[in-house]
Specification:
With 288 residues, the protein is an alpha/beta fold. The chain folds into two domains: 173 residues, Rossmann fold (3-Layer(aba) Sandwich), CATH 3.40.50.720; 104 residues, Orthogonal Bundle (6-phosphogluconate dehydrogenase C-terminal fold). It is 54% helix and 12% strand. The chain has twelve helices and eight strands. Strands 3-2-1-4-5-6-7-8 form an eight-stranded mixed beta sheet, with helices on both faces. One of its GO terms (biological process) is tyrosine biosynthetic process. One of its GO terms (molecular function) is NAD+ binding. Its EC number is 1.3.1.12.
């Protein structure tokens, strides 16, 4: 395979951006490659720059957009709406052969904007995270064994750089999975965005009793601690899918309430059994 990725730029060096940078650098070393890792984050001060280019492994901190975007692969690692806006800046500075990616939690809107601008683009969503934020909490192990969703049109998948990116992710211990941007947003509205809003609503609904809650409630409510600054962009860019999922779940919840009120224990037992089986499968997959 031709090795076309010699430089990767990360625009944003928070938890996911810095962890991805470290994982790809480790993958490059493991496969005998020398890939220069370039990055920029507007929130960094002098001490952050020293740390990110020292113990964290960034090769060069580059504030000049003309030099920052002059790379084989550019990865936008800011919040969703900011990444969409950054495509205009990227378009002004990237080369014709540059592949642009991102780590946003929604994909359809940014993919449409990239297509409109004529940018070769492949959306990337690492299914990983932790409660701590910032490059200080970053680690290549954060992505070990984790799914990384790659969203693009078929034509982009056939390019050398896209194929090489998928190979680097595998070498980093990730599990690349391909789907369209539209499918991604439908799927993650169901298994990510809906649970977040359920957790948020649950905490609001139970506000008067939380001081007596036990660990089970705390587990259910964990996502309620997520920052609105992150989730505003996700909701804004995936409103329709999220609303569809919430309405469907509300209808299911109403059905369950009717079964509880009517004492339909056979139907409730069936739901418990199905949920138990699905939970067991989820646990087995998580431990594999």
């Amino acid at each position: 395979m031709q090795q076309g990725i010699h430089t990767i730029s990360f625009v944003g060096l928070g938890l996911i951006g810095a962890s991805l940078m470290q994982a790809l650098k480790r993958a490059a070393g493991a496969t005998g490659r020398n890939i220069e890792m370039i990055g920029f984050d507007p929130a960094f001060d002098a001490a952050d720059i020293v740390a990110i280019t020292g113990e964290c492994g960034l090769d060069r901190f580059e504030p000049d957009p003309a030099k920052l975007y002059n790379a084989d692969l550019v990865v936008l690692c800011a919040p969703v709406v900011t990444n969409i806006a950054l495509l205009d800046e990227a378009k002004r500075h990237i080369r014709k052969d540059t592949l642009v990616s991102d780590v946003s939690s929604t994909k359809a809107e940014i993919a449409a904007k990239a297509q409109e601008l004529g940018i070769e683009f492949i959306g990337m969503h690492p299914i990983a995270g932790r409660e701590q934020q910032g490059y200080q909490a970053a680690s290549p192990e954060l992505l070990d064994g984790r799914l990384v969703i790659l969203c693009t049109e078929c034509a982009t998948l056939e390019t050398t750089l896209a194929t090489e990116l998928a190979g680097l992710l595998r070498a980093a211990g990730c599990k690349p999975l391909f789907m369209s941007p539209e499918e991604h947003d439908r799927v993650y509205a169901n298994i990510s965005h809906l649970p977040q809003l359920i957790s948020t609503a649950l905490m609001a609904h139970c506000r008067e009793n939380v001081e007596w809650a036990g660990p089970g409630f705390a587990s259910m409510a964990r996502l309620a601690g997520s920052p609105w600054a992150v989730w505003r962009d996700i909701v804004e860019t995936n409103r329709s899918n999220i609303a569809d999922e919430m309405e469907a779940f509300s209808a299911l919840l109403a059905d369950v309430a009717g079964e509880v009120r009517g004492g339909n224990f056979e139907a409730l037992e069936s739901k418990f059994r199905e949920a138990n089986d699905l939970y067991q499968r989820l646990q087995e997959r998580s431990s594999s």
